[in-house]
Write a structure and sequence with these properties.
By secondary structure, the protein is mostly helical. The chain is 73% helix and 1% strand. The protein has 3 domains: 209 residues, Growth Hormone, Chain: A (Up-down Bundle), CATH 1.20.1250; 58 residues; 261 residues, Up-down Bundle (Growth Hormone, Chain: A), CATH 1.20.1250. It contains 25 helices and 2 strands. Helix 3 packs parallel to helix 6 and helix 5 runs antiparallel to helix 10. The N terminus and C terminus are likely disordered.
Amino acid sequence: MATPKSLLDRPSTPKTASASAEPANTDAKQDLSVLTPVPDRRYVTGFKLYIIVAAVAFVSFLMLLDNMIVSTAIPRITDQFHSLPDVGWYASAYQFGSSAPQPLTGKIYKFFNTKWTYLVFFLIFEVGSVICGAATSSAMFITGRFIAGFGGAGIATGSITIISLCAPLEQRPPLIGLNLGFSLLGLVLGPLIGGAFTSYTTWRWCFYVNLPVGALAVLGIIPLRVPEEKIKPNPLALLPRLHHYLDLIGFALLAPAVLQLLLALQFGGQAHPWKSAVVIGLLCGSVANFVVWGFWNRHRGEDAMMPRSMISRRDVLFSGLYVAFLTSAVYGGIYYLPLYFQAVNGVSAIKSAVHLLPLIISQLITAGFSGVAVTKIGYVIPVAVFSTVFLSIGTGLYSLLQPGSSSGKWIGFQILGGVGFGAGLQLAIIAVQAAMNSEELTSGIAFVVFSQAFGPTIAMTLYNVIFLESIKDQIPKLAPNVSATNIVNAGATGFRSFVSPEDLPGVLKAYANSIDRTFYLAAALATLCGIFLWGMGWHDLRGKKGEDGTKSTGEGTDVDQSREDMEKVA
């Protein structure tokens, strides 16, 4: 017995959408949360599709570039503003701005035009960059970072949403993989470009560069059509009950919970002891807010910012957990391998970024092949197993790096880790898209992106605690004549200026051992992906041949049936 085709298969023309949307604005009593499928919807094909994918990949690249480029600008910024105590806020303001509103972006994309909403978020990101570049005080710079982070939250969700709207399900894995893989180049190129700007011009160009480069990406998006799945209501018709449609009360409850948790992790063990009243108070406040939000979310039901039916489903929840642990494991390498190169091997910040290229290039190449493999196999779980095995081995081998380790070791280890990360990078997004209908899609994407950002936030705190505690433990044993506190305060390379040649080998050994211990956690997190991947669902992503011999998009009967089966199991 044939089941109805997914709403994702029902295409549209913009004119029809406009005409059909008008009646919704004249009937004040109509529930605008129930959106009508767009008739005769057609996907973008050929050269136009690749232009759109390239443009959103470039915007995502700029976002991650901006996230990393600030690391090399911070010393010059603190010199100009005499603001060394604010360094922690320079790094975390963007993180705070992007994490809290992330779930809300899914609701925004559901009700507003996707292309123009995406461009508005990008404009917010650019405004934040301009404020940072033109900053005349430390407070102004921190404000700019927060605004840029808010724009980045919408960019992350919007990039995946646009690709999903433009291409059928079986074509998305390689496109999403290349988008995510290319954007991660920003992580390694950020220090290189930032170092060049701060050395040869001014640190302000680290942020001004987003304007002309971003304009090129926008020019690739504006002329092209992004086909909507549903007829979006007139924005003016939403305003009277905007708080209801976007669940702004839910956002007002969740945002403080997230921010208090991030602040506690930021302050704990650094600005304040973990047992201090400040940190404990923030943690208690966060838990209280999460509990209240949980009750509110349950009360709101399907109208909630993160619908309970979505986050209680095994395939969606496990996809979020999988990508959270995956990215948390990878971030250990991305942040602590450069520390190994600079502190232990004594190379410059720019050269350490070059040494990270094996990890970035291998994951970029594998991301494309992984997408093709998912399309051919039809399921994400076999590729997720491959990803988990390689990532676990690669991150585990990082822990063998010591002073004097050959380049062959750190290159080979990075390639293994990069292959694992590249293979698994887009799998959670693909699994959620296959499992959910068009009504839930943007919320599902926002949930996965939130998990992908929030997981590493917590993991980085754990990495930092492990590293600092290990340094304090190792220095007295391996370099008893050196103060562990002085080593920590001196930074990754500053200790070489006062440590004697006799004590230096012991300090380098202590640094290497401490970095290795962070990689133990990274390997454990990668291994735990092997538990969560089995809950991502066996949804067939391949197109099915119908009675007429033509190939469907793979988003119809088999996906809907798999969804029903999964709900029964859960």
